[in-house]
Amino acid sequence: MSVVVLISGRGSNLQALLDAAVPVSAVFSNMAGAGGLAIAAARGIPAIVVPHREFSSREAFEAELAAQIDTFRPGLVVLAGFMRVLTAGFVQRYAGRLVNIHPSLLPAFPGLDTHARALAAGVKLHGCTVHFVTADVDIGPIIVQAAIPLRPVDTPDTLAARVLRQEHRVFPLAVRWFLEGRLEIADGVVRVKGGDAQLVFDDS
Ligand code: GAR
Question: What is the DSSP secondary structure assignment for residue 142, as one 8-state letter?
Answer without folding.
Answer: E
